[in-house]
């Protein structure tokens, strides 16, 4: 590339990204011939009186040549991590290789350094797939677990070389989606750009993992690249298997069929709830495990609360179909929850699993077991259906040597280290552990994994222990929550010295105000509020 007759200075950082001094319209054909597919302008149009080609002219010329173009202006004296975050977002979407320019090239280079992407395979489409990238620690998954454990590791080992592998450009705070479905939380406040949350010191690789090769300390990305690691942390979450309910995918978001388990559908839940005046509302829950085991029934409670307050509940037939044998997995919370089921005059049908939906005709089919254990398929009509899909481990994990017989990443339940691969740890929804799959569980697990991974590297005992802690704030009505906190075996692990089975306004405040703040400001930044492991709590 450098041998081309260019009228500007160019520096190639890697196969995917280069920076340059000011370019002109006449330079674009040369840039295209050199193999570049995208151009980023970091120089503000008004800089130095605007006596240089502007972004609008460049954009039009790039479009005519088939080059992608983005305008990311930056004052050379006021660069910040936000510029790096913005560049990460652009590089996740723009075809590579990319050329960024400013007046001298220094500003573009500094933004690239702020992006924490030097030498990382940010966008390997069509280039460099045969090169092996190596990192000390690779984290697969950039959700709650991935960001939290990366921050906890960097808190303990600031110089650790960490890569986070995740294809998503957005990061979601999913616990609030139930509140969005009740019209009391803005869905826009539950999502932020992934690039803005990657901790300083970690490198983000915006790709999906197609294969785990733990016998060779490698992972393979969807684009064919191989990534080598010394330590691996597996936390890609789980997969919502919508396709396992016949007809569901085709009717979601219309025909009265919704689900708070998707960011774009939670507002539709509230639309249905607020518009329903009479008829039949069905709520479903699949077999365990699922993320946030209480979320399916929380959708029912909050909907019924609205209808009760509006004087409509007597005109609406409510039915909760649960594939399990009990309303909730921890016995202590069943009696108070049943009181709300009776308060809302809802019909509870246990061992009833949603298997098929016909949205246009407003029909749903459930496989229901009778007292003798005999299953039969029952057809039910509805005016509103809140459906929750079966949930499984991601294919790359389920089909790998890391999986147990059910497809989950098989780890020791206390140390969270893999039972067969000593340099592999896991946390979050993908784990084989028997805890509730909640953000609260991840908050505790991140500390255990960070502590134990570094202890393992140092040849020390894995003293941090995970006790199975999970929390499910059960929103039984607007303004009141039963704060269910428990560990392995259903052992109650309340944070506060109050009866945890009682619905409280203080717990509502915790759910709606405190916990979102804790998530964004503390948990994802490695500030481990109330997150110490059982061992470290005993031995400060």
TrEMBL record:
This is Oxidoreductase (Flavoprotein). The keyword Flavoprotein applies. It comes from Collimonas fungivorans (strain Ter331). The keyword 4Fe-4S does not apply. GO terms for molecular function: FAD binding; hydrolase activity; quinone binding; sulfide:quinone oxidoreductase activity. Keywords: FAD, Flavoprotein, Oxidoreductase, Quinone, Transit peptide. One of its GO terms (biological process) is sulfide oxidation, using sulfide:quinone oxidoreductase. Residues 135-255 form the FAD/NAD(P)-binding domain.
């Amino acid at each position: 590339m450098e041998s081309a007759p260019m009228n500007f200075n160019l520096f190639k950082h890697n196969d995917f990204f280069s920076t340059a001094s000011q370019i002109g319209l006449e330079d674009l054909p040369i840039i295209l011939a050199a193999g570049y597919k995208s151009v980023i302008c970091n120089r503000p149009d008004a800089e130095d009186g605007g006596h240089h080609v502007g972004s609008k002219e460049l954009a039009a010329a790039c479009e005519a040549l088939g080059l992608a173009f983005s305008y990311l202006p930056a004052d050379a004296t006021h660069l910040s991590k936000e510029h790096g975050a913005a560049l990460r977002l652009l590089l996740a979407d723009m075809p590579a290789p990319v050329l960024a320019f400013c007046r001298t090239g220094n500003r573009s280079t500094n933004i690239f350094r702020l992006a924490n992407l030097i030498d990382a395979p940010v966008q390997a489409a069509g280039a460099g797939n045969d090169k092996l990238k190596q990192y000390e620690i690779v984290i697969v998954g950039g959700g709650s677990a991935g960001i939290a454990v990366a921050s906890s590791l960097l808190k303990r080992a600031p110089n650790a070389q960490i890569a986070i592998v995740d294809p998503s450009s957005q990061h979601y705070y999913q616990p609030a989606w139930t509140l969005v479905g009740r019209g009391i939380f803005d869905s826009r406040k539950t999502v932020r750009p992934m690039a803005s949350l990657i901790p300083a010191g970690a490198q983000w690789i915006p790709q999906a993992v197609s294969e785990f090769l733990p016998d060779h300390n490698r992972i393979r990305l969807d684009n064919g690249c191989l990534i080598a690691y010394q330590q691996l942390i597996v936390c890609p979450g789980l997969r919502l298997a919508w396709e396992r309910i016949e007809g569901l995918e085709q009717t979601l978001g219309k025909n009265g069929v919704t689900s708070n388990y998707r960011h774009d559908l939670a507002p539709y839940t509230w639309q249905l709830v607020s518009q329903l005046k009479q008829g039949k509302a069905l709520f479903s829950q699949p077999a365990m495990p699922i993320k946030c085991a209480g979320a399916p029934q929380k959708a029912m409670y909050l909907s019924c609360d609205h209808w009760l307050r509006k004087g409509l509940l007597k005109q609406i037939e409510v039915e909760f179909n649960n594939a399990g044998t009990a309303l909730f997995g921890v016995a202590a919370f069943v009696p108070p929850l049943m009181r709300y089921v009776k308060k809302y005059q809802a019909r509870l049908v246990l061992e009833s699993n949603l298997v098929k939906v016909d949205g246009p005709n407003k029909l749903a089919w459930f496989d229901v077991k009778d007292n003798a254990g005999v299953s039969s398929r029952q057809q039910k009509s509805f005016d509103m259906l809140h459906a929750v899909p079966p949930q499984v481990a991601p294919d790359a994990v389920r089909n790998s040597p890391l999986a147990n017989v059910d497809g989950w990443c098989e780890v020791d339940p206390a140390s969270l280290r893999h039972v067969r691969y000593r340099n592999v740890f896991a946390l979050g929804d993908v784990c084989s552990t028997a805890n509730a799959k909640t953000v609260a569980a991840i908050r505790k697990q991140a500390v255990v994994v960070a502590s134990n991974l570094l202890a393992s590297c140092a040849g020390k005992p894995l003293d941090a222990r995970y006790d199975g802690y999970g929390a499910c704030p059960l929103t039984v009505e607007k303004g009141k929550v039963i704060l269910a906190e428990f560990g392995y075996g259903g052992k109650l692990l309340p944070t506060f010295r109050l009866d945890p089975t009682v619905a409280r306004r203080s717990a509502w405040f915790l759910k709606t105000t405190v916990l979102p703040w804790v998530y964004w400001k503390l948990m994802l930044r490695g500030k481990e509020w109330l997150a110490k492991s059982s061992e470290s709590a005993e031995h400060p």
